[in-house]
Amino acid sequence: MRAVFFGTPELTVPCLAAVAEAHEVVALVCQPDRPKGRGKKLEPPPAKVWAQANGIPVAQPEKLNDGAFEAWLRQQAPDICLIAAYGRILKQPILDIPPYGYLNMHPSLLPKYRGPSPIRTALLNGDEVTGVTIMRLTLEMDAGDILFQEEEPVLPEDNWVSLSNRLAVKGAGLLVAGVNAIGAGTACFRPQDHSKAVYCRMFEKSDGQLRWGRPAREIHNLVRAAVSWPVAHCLYKGEICRIHASQVVQGTHDARPGTVVAVEKDRVLVAAGEELLAILAFQAPGKRAMSMEEYLRGHSIQVGERFEDL
Q: Among 1.20.1410.10, 3.40.50.170, 3.30.230.10, 3.40.50.720, what is the CATH number of 2-199?
């Protein structure tokens, strides 16, 4: 099958690589390079880096609906278009171009978690099972008919990075299987139950703000979901600090939420609205992220000190 692939972040790469090995990927479409870091230097997205290293032409249109991109896509003459985390909405004239339509890898068990942040939302909600869905792309967001679905357990130690990596690999295999089934004429799609649709929204930087009055389990789930960006953060000694890893410690206490109740070799225990949160990896103001054990070797955190909400 001759395919044009749409995708931008790291989640895209395993899917793109798997399809490119099994079929002819004539081009990658991804979002434009974006400024990153303190120097605001333009940085190419991971999918572009992989595609260029493997000889696949890359298109990064700023506009999709001015006619120019539609004309370009027609020139590629794709049999099918494939999507894994492209991040932009495609309108019907573009959807109509490939004769076999668009096949999308979505990292949730649709119709649950339609929208832009299904992995973070699954972690934030403390889900024990998530998965991937291979579906047709339609104008309505994540509402197309389903070809394949497969569950993936959410492990207690998972965060956004680890869970994303596993879902990307699982989704890559299913996406190739979907293209194969369509090419062989054996694909059997089923409609979603739209009455059971659950939507998630785009994560924002403010979503990483900790609220110490919440139960430790909720705070821990936020830490897991916010790993890499925006990173869970609060105030320590009047400045913003970041928490990169945590665990829930069961037990009652009478301390005010946010108060340090114990300092151990490799973790700091902080009172939450219910139970305790152990901070395992920490980024102090102006410092790099490090394990709490490493941080405590050179710095002091005292019982009775407080972490505050922003």
A: 3.40.50.170
Helix, strand, or coil here: 141? Answer: coil
pLDDT in tens, 144-197: 999 999 999 999 999 999 999 999 999 999 999 999 999 999 999 999 999 999
Each residue's pLDDT tens digit, 85-96: 999 999 999 999
Which residues in the chain show pLDDT less than 70?
none
Which amino acid, one-letter code, is at 51?
Answer: A
Comparing C-alpha atoms, which of 148, 131, 15, 104 is closest to residue 122? 131
pLDDT of residue 40: 81
Which of 76, 77, 74, 80 lies closest to 184, judged by CA? Answer: 80
pLDDT of residue 37: 75
Domain 205-308 belongs in CATH node 3.10.25.10? yes
Name 145's Cβ contacts closer than 8 Å, sequence gap at least 6: 135, 136, 189, 190, 191, 192
What's the whole-model pTM score?
0.95
Between CA 213 and CA 272 the distance in angstroms is 6
Query: From CA 154, how far away is CA 90, in angstroms rounded?
Result: 31
Q: What does residue 164 show for φ and ψ, rounded to 5 degrees?
A: -60, -45
Give the C-alpha distances (Å, rounded to integers) separating 39 from 36, 42, 65, 284, 287. 7, 9, 32, 21, 18
Pairing of strands 80-83, 2-6: parallel
Backbone angles phi, psi at 174, to 5 degrees: -70, -35
Tokens for 62, please give them: 């700023």
Which residue has tokens 């001015």? 66
Distances (CA, A) of 106 to 123, 161, 257, 289: 16, 16, 38, 31
Cβ contact 57:27 at 8 Å: yes
